[in-house]
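User: Hello! My lab partner asked me to get a predicted holo structure for this protein. The small molecule is zinc ion, SMILES included with the sequence. Please write out the structure tokens.
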Amino acid sequence: MNIQDFKTADDRQVFYIEDGKHDGGVPLLKFHLFDQLQMVDYGITTRSGGVSEGMYASLNVSYTRGDEKAAVDENYHRTAVSLHADVSDFVLTDQTHTVNIRKVTGKDCGKGILREKDYTDIDGLITDEPGIVLGAFFADCVPLLFIDPQHHAVGVSHSGWRGTVARMGRETIRAMCDAFQSRPQDLYCAVGPSICQSCYEVSEDVAQRFQKEFPDAGDELCMPGAPGKYQLNLWKANEIVLSEAGIIKEHLAVTNICTCCNAKLLFSHRATHGKRGNFGVFIKLR
Ligand SMILES: [Zn+2]
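Assistant: Hello! Below are the structure tokens for the protein in complex with zinc ion.
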């Protein structure tokens, strides 16, 4: 796979692909912005490089959508190789469209893969301990990734429309400030592949919640579409949330890859009418 296979919304070089297959790993989408920091192993999985079949083909990383456990286990082993980690290093979210964040420590390692999670309703994970792989799951919702190079901390969170209107990005930053004394102006942040405005039709009640929360954003955020419908721009909304929370422009990478426009390459809930797996977003401090 290569980046030219993806349909992008513009010509910005936001991402590149690290093709880890030759090492027994999987391809990962990565941000140029993060690599200059040289302090994390991270990446966004695609549908390529795994062993799942049918609607989960091939690199599904969700245990809760009906895929065979053995296949998902193998998918994690391959993903771990690309992250220079072991599956016992992973800690996974318990996503229910909340804005709850968990501070992860070494005691949590393996939760969600090798052992049961002892927490629920967690849509964001943060840590300052090296070697722990934080993981979250997506198929159109917006992934947010955070790095604090000053305090050596990272975070990942899940921001669908509910999370976005509740400002999940701000909540994750607040959690990092509370836990690690992070300062917003030091943080690097990336908005990952998710559904684009053209593909994301929402009902009027959802549109009104965004118009109320982001009163100055106008049509760029929420454009009238079919009768009674609106086209919602989650990329823009998250950019506003992160900027207002203090992330500086030079530290922010906003995606230009839509999951729904690229449903052969990334899992998309809308494009497949829910018959799909999840791709994963993973980050680990070196
Ligand atoms: Zn699209």
